[in-house]
Amino acid sequence: MVNDELNEMYEEIVMDHYHNPRNTELLETPDFEIEKNNPFCGDEIKIQLSIKDESKVTVSVTGRGCAISQASGSLLAEKINNIDSNDLQNTVDLFRKLIKSEELTENELDILGDISALSGVRKFPVRIKCAMLSWVALEDIIKQSQPKN
Description:
Elements: H1 2-19, E1 32-38, E2 43-52, E3 56-64, H2 67-80, H3 88-99, H4 106-112, H5 125-145
Helix pairs in contact: 1-2, 2-5, 3-5
């Protein structure tokens, strides 16, 4: 019974983010911009990122595709908007742990917040790429933003 209620709540979060995506307004002068797609299913995502005051992130995520890919992008946008840029990689790493069914501490789950709603995707391996699309794009931006040695 509790599992059914939890699944229903998670499904509501995913569908809310799919139908009402967060942070979709394009940035006027982004510091970074990347577009990714999944050629197997047609999912597309575009992430724009600006870093203000040397550390705070402003983000825009737009795209089209399945509910999982678009909800994941919206959840990502909601989570990273206004966080410290130094926390971006940790957030990506935590999401990857969640999606790979690795054990997460209560603190790590608290950090992820509503993103945990995507944990059910791991039961459907073919859908993991949908959920990961925006996170892979964000990780590419993180790599681009690293100073070149």
